[in-house]
Design brief:
The protein has one domain: 3-Layer(aba) Sandwich (Rossmann fold). With 141 residues, the protein is an alpha/beta fold. It is globular, with a radius of gyration of 16 Å. 37% of the residues lie in helices and 18% in strands. Strands 2-3-1-4-5 form a five-stranded parallel beta sheet, covered by helices on one side.
């Protein structure tokens, strides 16, 4: 149904996680429903035909997919709470927040046609300005 309705193969869909442990949990959960997945773990990994792609936000940099879902785009993942808490100074905290915002932007911009944002709690505070800016862009011809 997905392939017919959206003209996508499973390999055209990427599920993006913030961390490797989160990717591992999603990979296991998806495997439990017998949906094939392919973990993109290195820059040399290529898309596996017939499998949903699964990768961290760091790994998808430079890649594009017709459809992407950011899994758990929540406040505790973007920015990653432990990264912000580890900042020793105000400047270090600001740099960490800038990197975290940039990483979410990378993840969000991997979707060429369809983007799904998921969370169990409140969405990341970085999302609202990104999505507002995106809606102001002119529609492609």
């Amino acid at each position: 149904m997905l392939q017919t309705e959206f003209d996508y193969g499973l390999q055209d869909i990427c599920l993006v996680c913030r961390t490797n442990p989160l990717c591992a949990r999603w990979n296991e959960a998806i495997g439990n429903v017998n949906l094939p997945t392919h973990r993109i773990q290195t820059a040399r990994d290529t898309r596996a035909t017939g499998a949903v792609q699964l990768a961290t936000a760091h790994r998808v940099k430079g890649l594009e997919f017709p459809a992407a879902a950011i899994l758990d785009a929540s406040h505790g993942n973007f920015p990653l709470r432990v990264a912000v808490n580890a900042a020793d100074s105000r400047l270090d905290r600001e740099l960490t927040l800038r990197r975290e915002r940039s990483l979410l932007h990378v993840a969000v911009s991997r979707a060429k046609r369809h983007l799904l944002l998921c969370t169990r709690t409140e969405f990341s505070p970085f999302l609202k300005p990104m999505l507002e800016a995106k809606t102001r862009e002119p529609a492609p011809d």
